[in-house]
């Protein structure tokens, strides 16, 4: 150890000189082709970019589910949520995510069928144990599982299933009072009739082919007990909700206490039908407590302080790099992360409105200029490259990673081309535009504003609350120029048709009147459910809408890093869909 | 006094009607549609089924009626016992929401108000009496900080302090005061202290400046010349006259506190009125916003009347004739 000032100076100079000398003599380091740590390990790895993908962005234990240990029964999982379920917990009416979080344990994750626990892209039996369809996909028959009971002990029958589906598809009427159909009713296709050909089957007849009907049924929840709701409807209470009848449902847990504004508590539904691979009855937990935590800092304190066992699956609560560091310092390896992809956001164009963005060269210039990966920092450090489908989706085509604007290796040339295109379109010095965004998407909007400014486009922000934003965008005559918006998370490309199709005009996506998009979706419909041919059409659609036109500039999307305490076992974190596997039926506590 | 109070009370109904009308119209002028929000924003596409669905939702929520019908229907529900009808978002009766949330906010407001008052008056008196001496400077430090720091920042620091230093966190869910007083206080005391700090910072400064002005008056010199003790002069003769502006501030602050505080409710997980108001405004839940606003205006009207009456009680020179 240096003892004097002179010795210290000498040591410091010596230590500085060693790497300098080493650097002079060593071969020059090879620069990565693309910047590291911007694409998650989950992203696809095309040959040119594979070398630079980098390691996973964090080095924390990966999800431990399913566990190798034999599960044990008992215990209460404390899994917070961030507010009361709205619409009386009625999943027929609620389009808001807060509703769903608490409804999964009580209703179960799925309806007749569900997304498979270990693979969100596969369909598994649920309340129906088998199903079949005719050759033209216009008739589907589901065999309802025996032994399913409502929480009050009443048997769940095919009549209950058909009643629920009819309520969702066609609503109800009592006198002059009308209950509208469920918001998901139309996604099931043009249903003509739902009936019960016998005591254990439900038949769905459609006016047109619907090859993906189970896919759409898989994300619904049966939350409406016929024996409790029909009498209320008959009395004129057509808008009766699950909450009005005590949340009696068919999920693995039943409601025991609901302190509005504060917490929800569930306990095991002893009559639940599902069993694990060894024939043990599910669920393992005695109960679930869902206190409301509305602030990320409060969640951090509660998690590190041992008050809660799980984080909240929401963008406001997902961990950033800096928060994760705090977790690691405080808890070490006493927690793990579930990594879940969610809706990517993008800068959407309105090409139905006269202005610069009707020129494809201007749109291409914007798409080529915006630094996609730069969004990673805005999103807290965890993000992945994607367009309309998640990288884990079997239909995803990673070709886009090679396109101008996406390929970091060609970024300088792409940006020069962007400037040239803008000048060629008649805007060599740029122009002024307005970006419409919801207030809570301000980070995205500010990022796009900065990027456009560098290109020469002076973008003004028009930040609105959700109500105003929805009104301004869900119109047949949208007046916005550029819009920040999410791109709906779907597990199959056909489910993008409402968001991307020309006739949908905003609401959730871009605004255009392009008949070619309609034609592409028509072609996709014609080849359904053939996977290879569907994927080919989807690739063409992606190429057309993002590279050739483009109608939207997707930027890197957030990867939710959701913390779970290490003793939370048996969890299947989904690759996408934050609400998947939230029924906690397979979860057990290794305490 | 009685005539004054009666005349003020008679002004309440027209004031409330005007306020309710203004709020009703403002909410309808604002863009946004609860039915669209429920549908996820895709209702007005050119798909006829979407449009039909949107219209049927609007009808089911009572939003398809003409505006005068909607207003009268809601106004009638305010007086016929339904108290504003039900939330459009979760069908819960507005009176149930209010009955659940208002006591929580009231408790928090009273705790903050009491703590703030108990701190502000002694601090203000001390600062005024020892004007430009060290107690004055010492009293100014917490008041300046309370003035300058935003609530949410203090709340986050406090949570961090409790978690990292004390290794303790406030309870996660709310327990009513009468059911579990200890758990209730463990959760409520922190936001109450933060609010009290902000309140006392204002009130202490007003007390100080008001008392300083009074202490220079002739009648204070007379009191001193009578041989009264300094504390008697300051508290009995000085403070009584100086307290009127403090009462005014107190009345205003209590009104604000009763309106709820969204940030503190969010950070500490308190199911008060502030969160309900913000959520209702975001979701365009008209019956809830309108009913809550009318209640809050009524509360402020009553508070103002009470403050006016308190003036006369505290200072006999104030007469309402």
SSE layout:
The complex is a heterodimer of chains A (591) and B (321).
Chain A: H1 5-25, H2 47-50, E1 76-78, H3 97-107, E2 113-116, E3 119-125, E4 128-133, E5 139-144, H4 158-170, E6 172-174, E7 177-179, E8 191-198, E9 201-206, H5 213-217, H6 226-234, E10 253-259, E11 263-268, E12 287-291, H7 296-304, H8 321-331, E13 335-341, E14 345-349, H9 360-369, H10 375-378, E15 383-384, H11 411-424, E16 432-438, H12 442-455, E17 458-464, H13 466-473, E18 482-486, H14 497-500, H15 515-527, H16 531-548, E19 552-554, E20 557-565, E21 568-569, E22 588-589
Parallel strand pairs in A: 1-12, 16-17, 16-18
Antiparallel strand pairs in A: 2-3, 4-5, 5-9, 6-7, 8-9, 10-11, 11-12, 13-20, 14-18, 14-19, 15-20, 21-22
Chain B: H1 2-29, H2 34-38, H3 48-60, H4 67-79, H5 94-129, H6 134-148, H7 151-166, H8 181-215, H9 218-225, H10 230-258, H11 262-268, H12 273-283, H13 286-314
* Strand composition percent of chain B: under 5%
Unreliable stretches of chain A: 1-64
Q: How would you characterize the largest beta sheet of chain A?
A: 5 strands, mixed
Q: Structural class, judged by helices and strands of chain A?
A: alpha+beta
Structural class of chain B: mainly alpha
Number of strands of chain B: 0
What share of the residues of chain A does DSSP label as strand, in percent?
15-25%
Strand order of the largest sheet of chain A: 17-16-18-14-19
């Amino acid at each position: 150890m240096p003892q004097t000032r002179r010795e210290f100076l000498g040591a410091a100079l010596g230590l500085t000189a060693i790497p300098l000398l080493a650097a002079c003599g060593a071969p020059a380091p090879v620069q990565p082709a693309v910047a590291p740590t911007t694409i998650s390990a989950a992203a696809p790895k095309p040959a040119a970019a594979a070398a630079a993908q980098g390691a996973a962005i964090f080095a924390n234990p990966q999800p431990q589910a399913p566990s190798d240990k034999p599960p044990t029964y008992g215990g209460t999982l404390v899994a917070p949520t961030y507010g009361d379920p709205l619409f009386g917990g009625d999943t027929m009416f609620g389009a808001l995510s807060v509703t769903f979080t608490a409804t999964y344990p009580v209703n179960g994750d799925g309806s007749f069928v569900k997304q498979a626990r270990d693979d969100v892209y596969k369909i598994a039996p649920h309340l129906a144990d088998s199903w079949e369809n005719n050759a033209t996909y216009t008739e589907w028959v589901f065999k309802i599982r025996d032994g399913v009971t409502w929480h009050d002990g009443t048997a769940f029958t095919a009549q209950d299933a058909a009643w629920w589906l009819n309520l969702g598809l066609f609503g109800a009427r009592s006198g002059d009072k009308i209950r509208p159909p469920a918001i998901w009713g139309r996604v099931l296709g043009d249903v003509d009739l739902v009936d019960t050909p016998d005591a254990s089957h439900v038949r769905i007849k459609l006016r047109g082919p619907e090859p993906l009907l189970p896919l759409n049924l898989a994300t619904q929840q049966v939350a409406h007990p016929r024996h409790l709701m029909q009498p209320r409807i008959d009395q004129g209470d057509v808008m009766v909700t699950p909450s009005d009848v005590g949340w009696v449902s068919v999920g693995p847990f039943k409601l025991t206490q609901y302190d509005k504004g504060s917490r929800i508590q569930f306990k095991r539904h002893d009559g639940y039908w599902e069993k694990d691979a060894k024939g043990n009855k599910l669920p393992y937990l005695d109960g679930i407590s869902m206190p409301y935590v509305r602030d990320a800092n409060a969640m951090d304190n509660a998690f590190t302080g041992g008050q809660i066992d799980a984080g909240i699956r929401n963008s406001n609560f997902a961990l950033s790099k800096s928060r994760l560091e705090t977790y690691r310092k405080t808890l070490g390896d006493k927690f793990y992360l579930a990594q879940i992809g969610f809706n990517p956001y993008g800068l959407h164009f309105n090409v139905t409105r006269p202005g610069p963005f009707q020129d494809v060269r201007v749109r291409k210039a914007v798409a080529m200029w915006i630094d996609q990966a730069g969004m990673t920092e805005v999103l807290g450090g965890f993000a992945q490259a994607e367009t309309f489908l998640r990288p884990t989706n079997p239909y995803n085509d990673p070709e886009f990673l090679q396109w101008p604007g996406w390929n970091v290796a060609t970024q300088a040339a792409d940006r020069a081309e962007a400037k040239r295109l803008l000048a060629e379109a008649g805007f060599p010095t740029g122009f002024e535009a307005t970006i419409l965004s919801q207030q809570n998407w301000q980070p995205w909007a500010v990022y796009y504003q900065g990027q456009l400014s560098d290109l020469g486009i002076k973008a003004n922000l028009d930040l609105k609350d959700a109500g105003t934003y929805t009104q301004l965008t869900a119109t047949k005559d949208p007046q916005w120029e550029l819009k920040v918006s999410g791109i709906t998370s779907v597990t199959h490309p056909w489910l993008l048709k409402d968001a991307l199709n020309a006739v949908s005009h905003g609401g959730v996506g871009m605004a255009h009147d392009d008949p070619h998009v309609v034609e592409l979706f028509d072609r996709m419909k014609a080849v359904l459910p053939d996977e290879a041919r569907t994927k080919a059409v989807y690739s063409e659609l992606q190429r057309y809408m993002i590279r050739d036109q483009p109608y939207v500039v997707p930027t890197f999307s957030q990867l939710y890093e959701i913390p779970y305490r290490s003793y939370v076992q048996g969890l299947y974190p989904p690759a996408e869909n934050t609400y998947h596997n939230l029924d906690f039926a397979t979860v057990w506590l290794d305490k | 006094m009685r005539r004054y109070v009666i005349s003020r009370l008679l002004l309440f109904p027209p004031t409330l009607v005007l306020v309710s009308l203004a709020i009703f119209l403002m909410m309808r002028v604002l863009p946004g549609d609860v039915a669209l929000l429920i549908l996820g924003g895709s209702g007005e596409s050119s798909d006829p089924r979407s449009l039909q669905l949107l219209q049927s939702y609007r009808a089911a929520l009572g939003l398809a009626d003409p505006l005068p019908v909607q207003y009268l229907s809601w106004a009638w529900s305010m007086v016929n016992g339904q108290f504003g009808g039900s939330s459009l978002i979760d069908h819960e009766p507005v009176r149930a929401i209010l009955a659940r949330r208002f006591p929580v906010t009231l408790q928090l407001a009273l705790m903050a108000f009491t703590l703030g008052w108990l701190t502000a008056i002694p601090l203000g008196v001390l600062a005024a009496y020892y004007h430009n001496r060290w107690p004055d400077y010492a009293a100014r430090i917490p008041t300046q900080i309370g003035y300058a720091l935003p609530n949410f920042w203090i709340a986050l620091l406090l949570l961090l302090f409790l978690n990292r230093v004390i290794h303790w966190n406030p309870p996660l869910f709310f327990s009513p005061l009468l059911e579990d007083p200890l758990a209730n206080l463990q959760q409520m005391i922190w936001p109450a202290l933060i609010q009290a700090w902000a309140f006392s910072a204002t009130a202490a400064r007003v007390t100080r400046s008001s008392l300083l002005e009074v202490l220079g008056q002739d009648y204070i010199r007379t009191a001193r010349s009578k041989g009264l003790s300094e504390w008697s002069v300051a508290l009995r003769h000085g403070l009584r006259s100086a307290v009127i502006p403090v009462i005014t501030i107190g009345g205003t602050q209590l009104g604000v506190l009763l309106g709820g505080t969204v940030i503190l409710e969010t950070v500490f997980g308190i199911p008060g009125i502030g969160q309900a108001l913000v959520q209702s405004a975001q979701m365009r839940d008209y019956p809830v916003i309108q009913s809550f606003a009318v209640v809050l205006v009524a509360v402020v009207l009553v508070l103002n009347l009470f403050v006016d009456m308190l003036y006369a009680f505290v200072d006999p020179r104030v007469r309402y004739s």
